[in-house]
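In this supplementary section we document a worked example of the pipeline. Step one takes a protein sequence of length 234 as its only input; no multiple sequence alignment statistics are reported here. Step two produces a three-dimensional model, which step three serialises into structure tokens for compact storage. The input and output of this example are shown verbatim.
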Amino acid sequence: MVEAKSAPASLQVSKSGLTELASTEAELNIPKRQTIGMLLIISTSFLGLWLAGKLWFNYHPDQVRDPKYFSLPQLAADPKNAAFEFVQRYETGDYIPAGDLSLGELHREVLGHLQQCERDMKACDDRVNYSKKEFSGSAALVSQDGDQAVVEMTHQFGAGAPKMTTLEVRRDGAVWKVLSRRAGPAPRRAGASAATGAAVPSGLVPSQTAGVPSGNTEQQAPARDSAPANSAGR
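The serialised model returned by step three reads:
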């Protein structure tokens, strides 16, 4: 004879045959300690694996990518870039490369500023680091004749007013260097185009060539008045 199994403690059968639910946590005993322990083990393992992966893939020495270095021949390969690099260095107080990009009296002026900076190098370095972040500008080649060229440079610091500088640039060996600088735009010659330096067609003033595309400054000459009708029989 098979004996009937007794009902769990949480389910007690009353004399009337109805199942009575457990009234206390101790009688219910759910979840069991084993279930709670397994959940804690799984949670701890997950957090441990996550922390180990984060440390493994993110803990490394700081990798600082140094800025790319350009040599002087690369910076001053043409007059426009040479003028731009000089103005940027000169205006931000970076006088060592500015001296390498200058000639004559302007070179001596840059060396004088450099000697003043040597008295307080920290202040000059702070000025250079701050000014480089605020500097912006653009350069335009006005004219070029052999080893000499004229460049207009417009620059500003932050939201300040833009300043225009005209620079005379000269070839010095394999590089171009700035010979002189002055404030304001470059003067335009009446016999040359301001943008390309091409000769202006006879009978036209420079303003008439402003709308002509670069490299094609020729315009058709105005048609001559037709000759009198009676000249045909002569």
